[in-house]
Amino acid sequence: MNRHNQGIRKDSLRLILIISGIMIFLSILLGLYIDNLQDKLMDDQEYLEKKTTVADELGDSLYEVLLRARGYFAFKNDYELVLLNDHLDSLEEQINQLSKMAVDQEERNLALELETFYQKFRFEILPRGIELANANDYNALQKSSQGEAGDLINEFLLRIKTYKDENISKVKNANEEIMKKSNSYTLTAAFLFSLGFIALSIAMWIILNRIIKPIEELDAASQQLTLGKPISFTSKVNPKNEIGKLMNSFSEMAITLQSKEEELMTQNEELHAQQLELEEHQQKLQTSLTLQEKTTNRLERLNKLNHDLTFTLDQQKLINSIQQYLQDLYPFDASIFWTTDEKIYASHGLSEETVKRIVHKNAVINKARLKQERAYVITRTITNEEMGIAEQPFYAYDLYSGVFDSNDELLAVFCATRLGIPIHEDEIEELIGILQRVSLSIGRILVFKQIESSRKLNQDIVNHVNEGIQFVDMNGTMIQFNEKLIDILQTNWSHNKEIPVHEWMETFIDIADNKEELEEFFNEAMSEKTTEVMNVCYSINQGKETFLNVYASPVCRNNERVGTIFVHRDITKEHEVDQMKSELVSTVSHELRTPLSSVLGFTELLLNKKITPERQHKYLSTIQKEAQRLTNLINNFLDIQRMESGKQQYEMANCRMGEITLDVISQFIHEKKHSIYLVDESVNDFILCDKERLVQVLTNLVSNAIKFSPDGGTVEVTLRNNHNNLVISVRDEGLGISEKDIHTLFQKFKRIDNSERRKIGGTGLGLAISKEIIEQHGGKIWIESKERKGTTVFITLPVVERQTEQKDEFEPNYTGLNVIMVEDDSSIALLLSDELKRKGFNVIHHYNPKMAYQEALKLPLVGFVIDLMLGDDMNGWDLIRKLKSTDKTKNIPIIISSALDIDEKNMKLYKIEKYLTKPYPPGQLSEAIDAIVNASISGGKGEVLFPKLDSE
């Protein structure tokens, strides 16, 4: 028989392929048939739907034609006629399309009738109707529409509707036909699939019956073979296929195994005997190996202990290592090892309470016995806690051993206990030998600690020296240095590291000013030829300039030089004192010589020459001015001396900074080139102060602002609150100060070295005195400035709670609005200012009406409060006249506050808002300005009037 027909796999595969091929072929035929039929039905349905759409569009177009025709007939609108022609064209196109789609005689007749209707309507009925409409013959037009033409149109509308309904019915029937066909095709496909599944199931059953039953017999035969029973097969299997060959091979294997069974049993017994002998040898080898491993582990532990005893300098680490080694060497139930001096310990199996009792109270040590025996064991009956689950009592063995130094002093103690297992003599002897080696290691650590303690003490002493110290060896390597040297150089050198000569020398050279001189000094000082002490001065600049003096001295040991020590001393203060002395001499000689020269010169003139009384008065005034200048200079020297010695007295009292400021500004009322005024934005200006001293500070600041603004300009003093502080600022438009010089201004006798300021003169003490006074009042003072942009000095002082009978409870209404007050009586100005500030106004005080006018040209203002009696050069009416004649200020409201009677003529002429005759309640002023602001906001333009600035 051919091998192609012998395999079970090939037979089974052939059967499955035949059945599957038949099913696939029938499925393809059925699918093609169904698909072809469905395509035909869908085409028919699509064609019917298209004809329905055409019929629907015909009806719509016909309706549009009638609608547009009637629209034209009714309104004679040419646009309706255009739309009518468009719809007629669409109607003609749709009739042609219907004619092309006709498939039977009825549809062709319908298309022909529609074409006839179209021709007649467009070329006969419609022109006639248009002619009648244009002739306004609506009776004839109505008869025409009700006659033949109307009947024809209605007839064709009905025909189109009937045609559309018939097509819709055909589409519906076509859909029903498609659904019926689809259901029948589905049933047919399901029937064919069921037949195929049944055929495939029968084929699979035949295949499984050919394979599974022989396999089950093979499984049963294998179990029989395992039990040693004979085997047999009942299934009829083709001996030439795979399973038949497998069953034959299994039968032959079973016969072979059964014939060899006895031989294998004999060999198995011999192998078993050999295995027993091998296991005996293996046990002996394992015992030897275990003993060797224990010896190796013990040697390794001993080697680690020796290493720790030799090299470990950490006492706690050494104690831990000894304790661990003894515990591993002699397995104790509990043990502890501790030093007697520092109470450092390591324990095993003990509670913290027991450790404290043993280590800190020495409750278990018999020192005399330890010195005599070095180690001893105490046998005792165990306690109830130690018995555990044991039924009979037994013994515990406590071991005590000590570690002694060469002077027989006890250094450390080892205690251990073992339950039920005695401690033998050989263990004790071995332990004593180990502890003798431990004593050497502990002694070495104690010596190292003493040395390290001495070294640290020396380093601490050196670190607390106020000079920078460094010691270098003969090669120049820096061996030791202190913290002060690190602070001076601002480096991150580590004390545990030696610094090479090139590294530390480069650090000095990089930051020093006199680099070459310093480098030459270091090299010469470290030279072996140098035996004398040397020194040199140098300066470094790391954020601030520091001056230092360094001296070098050789260091010898046993008359042999071992290195060089350098000591760096900070002499910055001494240098500053020397510089200050030089500046003091220079300043005093200049500042005293100039006024003295004037006094002596004018005095000589008065004594030796005949001078007119007017000139005498002028000379005497100059002498008085220069004498006062000398007095102020001497007072400054005395003040600075008292402040430095701590003898300056302050008489503190509650004062108003606004009052102090106005008093100071009034001192400069006759200043011609400068506009000095106060901007008061503060709510609370009460401070605890020495009034005379604050007058001194503010006078000095305003005087400086004037002095260092040689070209004139404004000097603005501002008061405002910042939390619990009052901030006072004095701003000028003068020379300004460079950023690098600002931090030096508060130093005594310090003056900026430039030609412009040198010409102005001064002692350089004013700001130093001011700083001392402000700091004694718990405040701060600082300066902000730019060259050629002016300078602002700021002062902050803590405020105190206002002491009034009843605190005002109000919300400021006009925060940020400016009011200029021109009033030469500081008390009245202060009173009125308080009232306006309650309303939230910023009050700008001026004594000089000319300066007030100049300020009005720069600031946005809500109003003026002007006193009429101001001075000789310009009175209140003069200021008002000038304000009203200037476009930028003519609309600013003005309130007059004066002791003079009302001048009705000028009131009307200058449109004065309010005239308040002194004395009057301050509330009248705030009510007047309140009314002005409300009127400006609610009336007219609806806004407060501000003058336009020049930049606008």
TrEMBL record:
It is an enzyme of class 2 (transferase). The chain crosses the membrane at residues 12-34, 185-208. It is found in: Cell membrane. The keyword Transport does not apply. Residues 209-262 form the HAMP domain. PROSITE patterns: HAMP (PS50885), HIS_KIN (PS50109), RESPONSE_REGULATORY (PS50110). GO terms for cellular component: plasma membrane. It is a multi-pass membrane protein. Residues 587-801 form the Histidine kinase domain. It holds the Pfam family Response_reg. The keyword Hydrolase does not apply. Its EC number is 2.7.13.3. It catalyses: ATP + protein L-histidine = ADP + protein N-phospho-L-histidine. Residues 81-115, 257-284 form a coiled coil. This is histidine kinase. It comes from Lederbergia citri.
